[in-house]
């Protein structure tokens, strides 16, 4: 009878440990939390988070922590200040597919202009 009781106690302990570990995959760094929830936190869609917008995601966020994240000291947090790295590609923010699409359309337009231009007389 005693062995069964000990086994049950060990099983309960393991279950509690698993429950405590469930939150390990969630970001705990305020910058990571805000970056992950940036779109839903940015209520006015200005691409930056005010302290009230940031506190909607992290209710206990202090002004000191907010100011530490606010690298340019403008009172707002951008994605870059939160550590997001921009995608490498077109300097105008276009995807590679969009750049190729634009070049294709430009080439078609050039061919169209060439086809509709009057022929140039040959000089002799």
Task: Report what the structure shows.
- With 124 residues, the protein is mainly α.
- Helices cover 52% and strands 0% of the residues.
- It has helices at 2-21, 30-36, 38-41, 51-55, 63-69, 96-116.
- The chain is rod-shaped, with a radius of gyration of 29 Å.
- Residues 4-22 have low confidence and may be disordered.
From the helix content, strand content and strand pairing, which structural class follows? mainly alpha
Distance between the termini: 116 Å
Instruction: Summarize the amount of helix as a percent range.
Output: 40-55%
Continuous helix count: 6
- Determine the oligomeric state from the structure: single chain
Largest beta-sheet characterization: none
- DSSP summary, beta strand count: 0
Q: What value does the average pLDDT take?
A: 77
Query: Beta-strand level of the residues, as a percent range?
Result: under 5%
Low-pLDDT ranges: 4-22
Radius of gyration: 29 Å
The succession of helices and strands, N to C, reads HHHHHH
- Judging from the principal axes of the Cα atoms, what is the shape? rod-shaped
Summarize the helices and strands and which ones pair or pack:
Layout: H1 2-21, H2 30-36, H3 38-41, H4 51-55, H5 63-69, H6 96-116
In short:
This protein is mainly alpha-helical and 124 residues long. The chain has helices spanning 2-21, 30-36, 38-41, 51-55, 63-69, 96-116.
Which short descriptors sum up this protein?
6 helices, 124 residues, 0% strand, single chain, mainly alpha
């Amino acid at each position: 009878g005693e062995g069964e009781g000990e086994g049950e106690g060990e099983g309960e302990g393991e279950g509690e440990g698993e429950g405590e570990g469930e939150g390990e995959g969630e970001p705990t760094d305020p910058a990571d939390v805000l970056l992950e929830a940036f779109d839903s936190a940015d209520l006015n869609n200005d691409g930056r988070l005010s302290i009230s917008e940031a506190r909607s995601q992290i209710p206990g966020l202090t002004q000191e922590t907010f100011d530490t994240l606010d690298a340019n000291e403008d009172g707002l947090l951008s994605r870059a200040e939160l550590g997001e790295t921009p995608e490498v590609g077109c300097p105008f923010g276009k995807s590679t597919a969009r750049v190729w699409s634009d070049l294709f359309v430009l080439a078609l337009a050039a061919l169209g202009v060439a086809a509709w231009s009057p022929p140039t007389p040959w000089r002799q």
